Every structure is written in structure tokens, then in C-alpha cells.
Amino acid sequence: DTVLIKEKEVSAIYEGFDSETTSRLISRYNVGWIVVGDDEESMYLVNHQKIQSLGEIVLRDGGSYLLKVK
Q1: What separation, in Å, do the N-terminal and C-terminal C-alpha atoms of the chain show?
Q2: Average pLDDT over residues 3-7
């Protein structure tokens, strides 16, 4: 099922530790921005260190942030 595959790939971006897989997925889907907020925190075990290494935080509000992917 396509939706299930995409859900797993989004989960891999937010939660995964493998930067190579994350970079491949970001490239495949042409991701330019990543949002980490309350919704993402409740749905995923966000790997903040990896996510933040992917680009520059351009907006921060409390624990939420918007990241522009490199």
C-alpha cells in the first residue's frame, strides 16, 4: 500500500539514525523544509540531532522549529 510505505518513510526521516537513508528520502521527495512541532513530537520519536544536522533552523518557538533543508 502506497500510503503505508510513505508513512514508514516519513517516520524514517523523523526517527531514523541513518543519515544516508534520510538524505535519499529527502532527495526523492524534494523536501525543502522540515517542521518539528507538537504534532510531530506526538507522532514520532524525533531524532533532533539528525534533523537539525540536515539544515538551518529559520524559526523557533518554544520546542517547535522550522528547518530549511540544505
Answers
A1: 30
A2: 92
